[in-house]
Amino acid sequence: MGKNLDDRPAYLSSDGAKYSLGVHRGPLAPVGADNPKLEQVQSAGGISLATNRSKKEKFARHWRRFWCCYLIGNVIFLAIFLPVFFLVVIPAISQLVVNKSHLVLVNAAVMQPRADSIQLTLQSALDLSIALPVRIEPITLDLFMRDTGPKEPWGNVTIPGMTIKGNTTLGVTDVPTPFINSTTWASFVHDVVFKKYSTLSLKGSTNSFLGVLKSHVVLDKDIVSPGLNSLEGFSISDSALRLPPLADGTNLVGNATLPNPSVLTIEIGTITLDIKSGDLVIGNATLEDLTLKPGDNKHPLKAVLDINTIFKHLGEVLKSQANLLKTGNLTLNTITKSVVWENETVPYYTKAMSELTLTAEVPLMDTLKNTLHSLNITALEAYAKSNKTGGGLLSTLKGDLSNMESSSSSSGSGLSSILKKNVHVRDALKDIHPVKRDAALDSLANLFMTL
């Protein structure tokens, strides 16, 4: 039989016993005064049996085991992401940039107005709000009104390809533009003439390039700019009676001021207007070869007053003018009858302007002074003789002016008597001394008799 285990020694007493392995080693002696501390076994050759690893070592070990899975996963991800990025994300970002861009009209001109076309200049500043240059291909823009929509444009223009960086001006200059829809164009003209602010809507699509990245973008913008605002501020200045009348019958001349607060230059043509006092047409006026540029436009005006109509309806005329005559002014209302450019009627301008009444107050004393200043005495004498108004017209005129200065008059002419007896005249001039009033009416009657 084997050896009894109880007979083995309690522990080995030799110094080497602490390095022994196996069943004969026995328990180690306790640490105490008689037993020195056990020696610590150091690892040899830098090899450790410890299981704790750094993150770097773990990652390297993980990568060595699963790199193939990562590679396959990345290939699948890129196969899905790249088409989405180039076909969806980039175009969406490009479109967003275009949608948020600012488009401002800096210069525009509508020239050569014909019944079916115009010559158009359109320059706008586009700010994409990005620092990178963007190249665009040529783009055709439909021009329309937002109310009717882009399916009913009044015309279109093609802008050539260019590179846009930051704030860039793009547009066309002096391009013949036929009308696609004349009704839409007429509505646009009406808005420009009557509204304080008008809106030009445009839409088109093109390809844009950010480096080599290509995107299809749609430009759909409203450009808001000042309109003509019913030509508010219209006035007639430097008016004078032409004595005798010009060869074409013109017997009143002056300067018409037509404000244009927009950036739009409009070539209109020759405008013929009715002159009205209240509801009565008392003559007609002409603005020849009118072009409205930005700012105030002072343009020569020629008028033919219908003296027979004025005398025939004198009471009605004076009644409609009673309030302003007290201030020494005469009100003239003008309404467009026709607009012609190069002997061709311009229907859209005629329609819009015929709906607009332009009112001006004409100072009577200034008109009288301008009339006397421009008076051609020799021509007036010849005109008076040829029209059998009497050779003493000049002396009569001088006598009347002298009477005005001396505040006395004894004229008994037919027209003067009518004016003095008219209740509307007397009411309008009730605040003026009777002697001065009669003297002024005598001179006014003589002036009218020469027309």
UniProtKB/TrEMBL annotation:
Transmembrane segments: 66-93
Keywords: Membrane, Transmembrane, Transmembrane helix
Cellular component annotations (GO), alphabetically ordered: fungal-type vacuole membrane
InterPro entries noted in UniProt: DUF3712, Tag1
Keyword Transmembrane: yes
Pfam families noted in UniProt: DUF3712 (PF12505)
Protein origin, superkingdom: Eukaryota
Protein's UniProt name: Uncharacterized protein
Organism: Penicillium cinerascens
